[in-house]
Amino acid sequence: MSVDALLVAVIALPLAGALLVTACGERRRNLREAVTLVTASLLLLAVLQLLAPLWPTDLESESTVALSTPLVLAEPWPGVTVALAVEPLGLLFALVASLLWLVTSLYAIGYMRGHGEQNQTRFYAFFAVAIFAAMGIAFAANLFTLFLFYEILSLGTFPLVTHAGSAEARRAGRVYLGILLGTSIGFFLLALVWTWSIAGTLDFTAGGVLAGRASPFAASALLVLFLFGVGKAGLMPFHRWLPAAMVAPTPVSALLHAVAVVKAGVFTVLKICVYIFGADFLSQVPAREALMYVAAATLLIASLVALRKDNLKARLAYSTVSQLSYIILGALLANALGFIGGGLHILMHAFGKITLFFCAGAILVAAHKTEVSDMRGLGRAMPVTMGAFFIASLSIIGLPPGGGLWSKWLLALATVEAGAFILLAVLLLSSLLNIAYLLPIPLRAFFGKADNQSNGDGVREAPGFCLAAIVITTAGCVALFIWPDAARRLLSLMGGIE
C-alpha cells in the first residue's frame, strides 16, 4: 500500500471499529470484543507498514528526514488544511498508541467482565474513537489538524471518564472537560491564530516556522500560551483534571495515562517545540528558562503529593503529572538530547505506567482493595501482579531492568549539555522520590505481614485476560531496557534537531 493509503487506513480503522462495536451491542459481547481486537491488530499492522519508507536503508545512518508529502483531506480556509503526514516523532507516538490499544483491549475484556461493569459497548466504542483522535494527532501535518483532533480526543474521552454515571463521575467529567477545553480554546487556539498571523503558515517544518519572523516578546508569549494551552500535558496549575479522572474504570485510566491522552499532550508540546519553534530559535526565547523551572516545580511538587496519597490510583495519577514534566523539560532544553530523551520517555513511561495501572485494576478485581495501606502481604496471593508492579516501578524510577533508565539518562545528559545543573539535581531528586512512593508498595505486598486473613484467604490472581496484558507490558518494560536503540534511532531522524 502507498503511504497515502496507509494514512487513510490508520484514520479509518478505529472509526470503523467504533461503528461495528456499536452495531454488536451488549448481547453479542464475544463478537463485540473480537471486533475490537481485530481492528486494533489491523491498525497496528498499518502503522508498522508506515515505518518502512521512513526507516533508513543504511541502519547506521542517523541523518534527519523531513515530513512526508502531506495528504490533504480538506481545506476549510485558504491555506489552512486538514492534512496528514508521516514523521519520526508522530510515528513513534502512533506505534505506542496502536500497540497499547490492542493490549488494553485484551486487559479490558478480563477487567470489564470480572468487575461487572455496565455499558461495556459504549466503553469499547468510545475507546476506539479516542484512538481515532490519537492517530489524527500523531500524523497531523500542521497545527490546525493537530488542534482539530486534539479537541476530538477531549470530547471523545468524556463519556469514558463519566462511565460510572455517578455524581462523582459526572463531577470529575466536568473538571476534565472544563480544564481541557478551557485551556485549549483560551490559550492553544489563540497561539495557533497568532502563529498563523506571524508566519503565514501552520505547517510543521523542520527547523520551525517562527525563526526570523517572531519578536522575542511574541515568541515568549506564544511559548507560554502553547505550554499552558496543551492542558493534557499536565503542567501545573492545569493538572487537576488528571487525578479527578481516576474515578473512571482502570482501562480508561490506562487510556488517559499511557495510551493516548497525556501522551497526546506531551507529544504536542514536543512537536511544537521541534517543528514550530525549532531548536535554534527555541533556545533564544526569553521565557524558555522560566518555563523550565515551572516544569521542574511540577515535577517535584507532584512527586511530593504522590508520596502522601494512600489511594493507589491517586498516587499513580500524581506520579504521571510528575513524569510528564520530564518530557516538557526535555523539549524546553532545546537540544537534540533533550528532544530525543523526551520522545523516548513517551515510550518508556507508557509501558511502565500502563503496567502499574493494570496491576491496580487487577488488585481491585481480585482483592477488592484500593488503598496502599491495605496491601500488606498481598504479594503472596498475587505474585505475578505484584512482581509486575515491582518491575514497572523500577522502569518509572529509571533503574534496570526497566527501559525508563535510558530516557532518564538522555534527559540527564541533556541538562549537562545545556549547563542546567540545577535541573539535573531536580531530575535526580525526583528519582529518589519515585523510589519513596513506588517501591514500598510491592515490598510491603511481598514482605509485609497481612493485617487480616483476607489478604491471603480466598484471594488469587485476576482473570486470565488481565494477567496476559500485565505480562505483555511488563515484558515490554524489560525489552525496552535491552533493546532501546531502535526507538532512539527513529527519534534521531527528526528534522532540525542537530
How would you characterize the overall build of this protein?
The chain is mostly helical and 498 residues long. Helices cover 70% and strands 2% of the residues. It has 20 helices and two strands. It has a two-stranded antiparallel sheet with strand order 1-2. α4 (120-138) packs antiparallel against α5 (143-161) and α15 (383-397) packs antiparallel against α18 (440-447). It starts with a helix and ends in a 7-residue tail after the last helix.
How would you summarize this macromolecular structure in one to three sentences?
The chain is an all-alpha fold. It is 70% helix and 2% strand. β1 (71-77) and β2 (80-84) form a beta hairpin.
Which helices and strands, and how do they pair?
Layout: H1 3-24, H2 29-54, E1 71-77, E2 80-84, H3 88-114, H4 120-138, H5 143-161, H6 167-199, H7 216-229, H8 241-244, H9 250-259, H10 261-277, H11 279-282, H12 288-308, H13 312-332, H14 336-367, H15 383-397, H16 404-417, H17 421-438, H18 440-447, H19 464-482, H20 485-491
Antiparallel strand pairs: 1-2
Helix pairs in contact: 1-2, 1-4, 2-3, 3-4, 3-9, 3-14, 3-19, 4-5, 4-10, 5-6, 5-10, 6-7, 9-14, 10-13, 10-14, 12-13, 12-17, 13-14, 13-16, 13-17, 14-15, 14-16, 14-19, 15-17, 15-18, 15-19, 16-17
